[in-house]
């Protein structure tokens, strides 16, 4: 497990883990729903990816990193998932990886946790011989902060597909080259 440091006024050690656990199904649902960015169908897709990883293991093609925060629960310290990223090699490619989902609990946003998680997924993908990472997002104004976040993380717009998700809702694809080992 890797440790991440937050930039909050009170430093808190966060833990990063890659093993998927059954409890992650509900944690992912909670985090994605809390964002209020996604439809019920999109939330279901995020949860299905966790379930598929639990059922098929590495053969699912989905890799995960979970950020955990220590919380005191009934006088017992436990780890609570506050963010995650799901990524994997794009089928029929060599070294091209998609970041399918990244979400941080709204209570923990703006603390650089998302940027640290992006750096962690880039390192993990590099170890898997990734050459490029891709991220798809909506062109709706609601997603402007998301697109700005990807730019701050060093991603560039590769293309925009007009009216992809719906009339007036384009698909914007970001990319980032991963330097070789």
Helix content: 25-40%
* Widest sheet, order of strands: 1-2-3-4-5-6-8-7
By helix and strand content, what is the structural category?
Answer: alpha+beta
Radius of gyration: 16 Å
Please tally the β strands and state the result. Answer: 8
Reading off the top of the CATH hierarchy, the class is best stated as: Alpha Beta
For the termini, the CA-CA separation is 22 Å
According to CATH, the fold-level topology is Aminopeptidase
Kindly report the name of the CATH homologous superfamily. Gcn5-related N-acetyltransferase (GNAT)
Question: Would you kindly provide a written description of the structure presented here, covering whatever features stand out?
Answer:
- By secondary structure, this protein is of the alpha+beta class.
- The chain has a single domain (2-130), classed as Gcn5-related N-acetyltransferase (GNAT) (Aminopeptidase, 3-Layer(aba) Sandwich).
- The protein is 29% helix and 39% strand.
- The protein is built from four helices and eight strands.
- The protein has helices spanning 24-35, 40-56, 113-127, 144-152; strands at residues 2-5, 13-17, 63-73, 76-89, 96-104, 132-138, 156-166, 169-177.
- The chain has an eight-stranded mixed sheet with strand order 1-2-3-4-5-6-8-7, sandwiched between helices.
- Strand 4 and strand 5 (96-104) form a beta hairpin.
- Helix 1 runs antiparallel to helix 2.
- The protein starts with a strand and ends with a strand.
- Residues 5-11 have low confidence and may be disordered.
């Amino acid at each position: 497990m890797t440790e991440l440091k937050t930039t909050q006024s009170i430093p808190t050690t966060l833990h990063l883990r890659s093993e998927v656990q059954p409890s992650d199904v509900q944690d992912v649902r909670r985090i994605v729903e809390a964002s209020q960015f996604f439809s019920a169908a999109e939330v279901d897709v995020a949860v299905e990816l966790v379930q598929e990883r639990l059922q098929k293991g590495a053969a699912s093609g989905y890799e995960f990193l979970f950020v955990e925060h220590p919380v005191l629960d009934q006088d017992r310290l436990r780890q609570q998932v506050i963010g995650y990223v799901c990524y994997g090699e794009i089928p029929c490619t060599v070294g091209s990886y998609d970041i399918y989902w990244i979400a941080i609990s709204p209570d923990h946003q703006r603390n650089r946790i998302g940027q640290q998680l992006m750096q962690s997924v880039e390192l993990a993908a590099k170890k898997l011989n990734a050459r490029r990472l891709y991220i798809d997002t909506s062109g709706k104004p609601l997603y402007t902060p998301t697109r700005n976040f990807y730019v701050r993380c060093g991603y560039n717009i590769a293309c925009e597909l007009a009216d992809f998700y719906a009339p007036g809702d384009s698909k914007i694809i970001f990319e980032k080259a991963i330097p070789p080992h």
